[in-house]
UniProtKB/TrEMBL annotation:
The keyword Nucleus does not apply. InterPro entries: BUG, Bug_dom1. It comes from the Bacteria. Belongs to the UPF0065 (bug) family. Pfam families: TctC. PANTHER family: BLR1237 PROTEIN, TRICARBOXYLATE-BINDING PROTEIN. It comes from Pigmentiphaga litoralis. Keywords: Receptor, Signal. This is Tripartite-type tricarboxylate transporter receptor subunit TctC. Residues 1-24 form the signal peptide. Transmembrane segments: none annotated.
Amino acid sequence: MRHPLVLATLAATLSSLVGGAVQAQTAATPANYPTKPVKIVVGWSAGGVADVAARIFAQRLSAQWGQQVQVENRPGGGGIIASGVVARAPADGYTLQMVAASEITISPFVRDDLPYSYDKDFVPVFQTTLNPIVLAINANSPYKTLPDVIAAAKASPGKISYSTAGNGSNPHLAVELFSDEAGISLKHVPYKGGGPASVAAAGGEVVLGAMAISSALPYVKAGTLRVLGVTGTQRLANLPDWPTLAELGYRNAAQSSVWTGLYVKAGTPTAIQKKLADDFAIALADPAIKAQLANVGAEPGGARFTDFGASVKAESTRNEAIVRKANIRPD
């Protein structure tokens, strides 16, 4: 016969194990998530493409979940600082990351000091937006068209400056492709996000700015920026006066764009990952969200998990070749 103390100890141990298992199962149950505020970390300054997407979805999901969804900007290092915040947080779905494409498809080829592997340490859950890139100039600039800028750059190689969201950002690669096709050399001035890059161009700190439409549009509407060209092969339906880089003859640069997407820390319960993808898809299908995205020049994404990951891999392969040819290094 077992001693009562031994039986009591066994019972307590079993109760603890069962309780822990039930608690873990409950935490991973989609219907129960989220039970507290959720944080979306953004590796860029306010006004950038990832920040804009994060805030649009955060507002919608706060109402949808009945829990506050907070956006935390942690700019610097091309997204490394933000990724560090997510990597150090528990893999429980309460600390998410809204990334811009360059963090995943360019930074691994630009930086040798990445402390994380986006293939192993994070999971692509949902592609939120697709964003064309604009080449824009101060509204009072003497250069009225893109050919004007090209002529000036040919007359003064390396003197015409342009701003982007940073070294190795998608706009940076787009301008590298454009410069190569146009046969010119421009002076790159990197900033910490599309918002600051737009401010620099609008304020005349640089001659030209390259940024996602969502970053540039507030300054275009305010009359301080003028768009000279936009990536893509067809003019935008809601902004038909902007010529495409394809029609101007720069077809390689015209293929450039910036997507944003939701990533989580590897190890986040699969059930929570699926709920996140489902709920972001529900939000994206809302006409009000589509209208908000259209107002900032963004198109809805929608790719999930495997499809999202496959497109990321293909884009990474293309971008690696551009980075190697241009010898792009970190800020």
